[in-house]
């Protein structure tokens, strides 16, 4: 998950953390092993506070009715 120039990621990905640091990101490794076992990740643990209007899918034009 990226917040500005800070990346939150699983502590079990040190190679990725080093690569991101090399690109100028501040990396915050977190112990997410139990969430990974359940099929989740850092993004799955987030809650949007800006509402659905900020979601990218809202920016895609509605083309469902254009074929009729």
Q: Could you give a quick summary of the protein structure above?
A:
The protein is of the alpha+beta class and 68 residues long. The protein contains two helices and three strands.
Can you walk through the features of this model?
With 68 residues, the protein is of the alpha+beta class. The protein has one domain (2-50). Helices cover 21% and strands 18% of the residues. It contains two helices and three strands. The protein has helices at 14-22, 33-37, and strands at residues 2-3, 6-10, 26-30. Strands 1-2-3 form a three-stranded mixed sheet, with helices on one face. It is flat. The termini are far apart. The mean pLDDT is 77.
Q: How do the strands and helices of this protein lay out in sequence?
A:
Elements lengths: L1 E2 L2 E5 L3 H9 L3 E5 L2 H5 L31
Parallel strand pairs: 2-3
Antiparallel strand pairs: 1-2
Oligomer: single chain
Domains, number:
1
Per DSSP, the total helix count is 2
> Rounded to an integer, what's the Rg over CA atoms?
17 Å
| pLDDT averaged over residues | 77
Strand content: 15-25%
Query: Which shape, going by the Cα principal axes?
Result: flat
User: Distance N terminus to C terminus?
Assistant: 40 Å
Strand order of the largest sheet: 1-2-3
Structural class: alpha+beta
Instruction: Estimate percent helicity.
Output: 10-25%
Features:
alpha+beta, flat, 68 residues
């Amino acid at each position: 998950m990226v917040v500005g120039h800070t990346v939150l990621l699983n502590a079990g990905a040190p190679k990725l953390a080093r690569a991101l640091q090399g690109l100028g990101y501040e990396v915050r490794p977190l112990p997410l092993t139990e969430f990974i076992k359940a099929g989740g990740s850092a993004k799955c643990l987030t809650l949007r506070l800006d509402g659905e209007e900020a979601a990218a899918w809202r920016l895609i034009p509605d083309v469902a009715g254009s074929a009729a």
